[in-house]
Amino acid sequence: MGLKRQLYLWHRWLGIVACLFMALWIVSGVVMLYVGYPKLTPAERLAHLPALPADCCAELPTQWAQQPLKALRLTSLGGRPFYLLELADGRRITLDAGSGAPLVDADATWALANARQYAGDVPLEYKESLDEDTWTHSRALDGDRPLHRVQVGDAAGTWLYLSGRTGEVMRDATAQERTWNWVGAWLHWLYPLRGGLGFDNGWRTLVIALSLGGTVMAILGMIVGVLRLRLRKRYRSGSCSPYPAGWLRWHHIGGLLFGAVLVLWVFSGLMSMRPWGLNESQSRLTPKALQQGPLRAADIAQPVASALAGLRQEAGFIPVDVQWRRLADSTYLVARNAAGDSRLLEAGAPPEAAFAPERLLAAARAMAPEVPLQVDSQTHYDFYYFARDAQSMYGFQTRPLPVLRLRFADPASTWIYMDPASGEVIASLDHAQRTGRWLFNWLHSWDWQALLERPALREALIIAFSLGGLVISLSGIVLGWRRLRRSRPRR
Q: What's the CA gap between 319 and 297, in Å, rounded?
């Protein structure tokens, strides 16, 4: 059998399976432009928190204040201030900020109290405690399982998912999000197969296999389409395509016009799964080195009540959430209000809006003291540091401006983006991860800054090319179905 014949057969039989999934991916991808998988964004979380009163809190008990911590936060649970601690060994402790007493049980009653804090004065109904359901597949929720589900009697038909450890609201899902996601992200990521397989590795392997098969099929289709094209010596009908009409002609011409984009979309979808460890970080630089020592609450001399009162009196700032952080040899507080604005608090100093770039640079050098680095202060987004709308898969990420970009000359060519308003490392990307940015985000979502700044144009282009890809996929499904019927043995 000749090579050309082999190409036709491989394209035909791969396409019978792959075209069905490609049609699902295209339709669901267009839906995801406007409705994303349910998530709770940082802005939503802060907007629903009550103000922390200046006299709300006693100091953290000594036994915990001296402990090395991964994280420490003061926020509100069930309408009252609480300390949320994550210890160095990974354990999480929730303490009443007034009495210092630990939270004994984040049960259904506690979940309803936290849902009330989030939703306000509307009817609430506790539904169930669950480990995972259709709208909580994210691995970011693993530390809070089992989850409580509460139904809110608001106009949006919201479901709230609350942590079984602390009672915090971790996710909200409106009726509109749930409805559209059945034909959106739930289909796009093949979540029905994930639930059926019962384990993540099986689902991941299947998605990679289907994406790889679709990529090979689409490339073979492009080759076959070009081989069958005649621009000079045309076919008897006068057409450049051997197919005068019908689905075959739609498939051939559609593939020639839109096939390249379809190949790139399926291939970049494959890259989103980071198959075989591709695009995994190779950098040896760790943002934890910025701390230059363990985080301890006792290392900040300013009492919490004094800090909260100072924010109100000196800056007119009403905090709803306070986080303990460490930069170099200094422990400080990052206070945020309901609008997401932040203030920095250090003992003996007035509240500040941001750290000086020189201080961030001095701390960052501790990550690689002998490695040269280039520093840029950015007031705009670039190709690797960009913001997305809340409905996108990156809608949960905060991307503040301005930021300090540090480009290290280490073997992995690591770039660090630091937020002067908090001292946090917002993003860390080495060469492999930046390559993944090209292979996935740029090719798949068209997250190019010139288009992100023109959302209407970006959406119009994606929809137009999606319609072209849908023509290819639907015609392939029809042709595959006809071939299977012809191949079926007759009695």
A: 19
